[in-house]
Predict the structure of D-beta-hydroxybutyrate dehydrogenase, mitochondrial.
Amino acid sequence: MGHFYKSPILIARYFPLLSLNSVPDCSLSSCRPVQGFCFPFLTPNGRRSYASEIDQIGSKAVLITGCDSGFGFSLAKHLHSKGFVVFAGCLFKDQGAAGSQELDNMKSERMRTLQLNVCNSQEIERAVEHIGASLKDPQKGLWGLVNNAGISTFGEVEFTSMETYKEVAEVNLWGTIRTTKAFLPLIRRAKGRVVNISSMMGRMGSPARSSYCITKFGVEAFSDCLRYEMHPQGVKICVVEPGNFIGATNLYTPERIKAIAEKMWKDLPETVRKDYGREYLDEQITKMESYCNSGSPDTSPVINSITHALTSSSPYTRYHPMDYYWWLRVQIMTHLPAAIADRIYIY
């Protein structure tokens, strides 16, 4: 888990405001999820106080992308339970996938699934037309857009093909931008919310995750620029930066990790294979499996953060649903000189 938690002296040296007694026990069994806060010592229990909720939730509609499984699927059900009209965009709805079928089987007028591939401009245009026509009062617009659809992979720079970089960016970054641009007119009419799902890896780099990190860094920059532009329009832009929730999203199974690695090895230039050797790749597989196994299986901190962004009268700019270890690591990696942060975590 990095050298920092093994050295109270380092904590005292670099964070004098944190007493040794305030450093949490970060064994995997005891880490408490942290929702939407900046510095835990500023508020009791490390949490901000939540402002009052918006009025008339039941009259408001929200579009969520990536609802086939994971965060999107859970969020669609949760927002429906809160009273929202939910448009659940599903990549595999036209294939009769289990996620969209389960949402359809709710038989609720407030749960509406639609085929939506964020890489397909025509599907997005059809979604805009369908949702606009489905709203009780289109002139009042669409209250919320949650850009949740995303994919992930792993592999060091020399091991990652340009096709993989482009594929991940097409969904995570360009898909977010493409969908947001299409729905902004409806969001502006409602003076509503855009919630972009980024990651702690949108704030800090990580070995073997460059294809994912660069897309989430891009989502962060896009969200900041959009927030500045939309402020005069009364539209709020929020970013949710989850920690390690791979255990809850099923993005990686041991079989998928091995499949990715095998394809990566097969496609490598012979020079790279000879220089690194197969043993090096096997070590990377083991590290990735360890990271996945350490992820939280509980999505509720992320779901609660997104819900707050959509329902609070004063939502936060950024939410950080992650355990204390990852929260503190993000602060160190983004606030300390790189030479010190690298020494703690990388070298």
